[in-house]
Write a structure and sequence with these properties.
Blueprint (H helix, E strand, L loop, with lengths): L2 H4 L1 H24 L4 H10 L7 H8 L3 H13 L3 E5 L7 E5 L1 H19 L7 H22 L1
Antiparallel strand pairs: 1-2
């Protein structure tokens, strides 16, 4: 196998792991009446005073076009609101409403408990090993994009 082809099984394993994780996580999120992007925004805004669309996009990795539509739908359901930025008149802050805070308080801990069940019995050393390996892999891609 050539040097170039040696990385293909690593990429396949990474993609398969992510797809499996995403399917598992998304199924529970949908059971709670949300889409994964909606949950991502609610979870990101929870316990904050809000953030700009740019900050929210950076933290959720949702593209600007998709973000606008998801925020619009969350606003229509009364879970988020847009308010004027205190120091920058050109931008708005997106924040959870009182109803959105209540939703966050219900769905975020529930999803953490759902995900926690996957890791029952995994020792701290196992988590440390996975985190180290994933960060090392992340650095390979960061190095290539800089």
């Amino acid at each position: 196998m050539s040097q170039t082809a040696e990385f293909l099984p690593t990429i396949q394993a990474l993609v398969q792991c992510y797809q499996t994780f995403e399917a598992y996580s998304a199924a529970h999120i949908r059971e709670m009446g949300l889409t994964p992007p909606q949950f991502d925004i609610i979870a990101t805004l929870g316990n904050t005073s809000g953030m700009t669309a740019t900050e929210l996009g950076d933290r959720t990795l949702i593209t600007k076009g998709t973000l606008t539509g998801v925020v619009d739908r969350l606003a229509a359901r009364g879970w988020v609101e847009r308010v004027a930025h205190e120091s920058d008149g050109r931008s708005q802050i997106i924040r959870l409403t009182q109803s959105g805070e209540a939703l966050f308080a219900r769905v975020f801990p529930a999803h953490l408990a759902y995900m926690d069940a996957c890791f029952t019995g995994v020792p701290a050393a196992g988590h440390a090993r996975w985190q180290t390996a994933l960060r090392a892999l992340q650095q390979i891609f960061k190095k290539e994009t800089v």
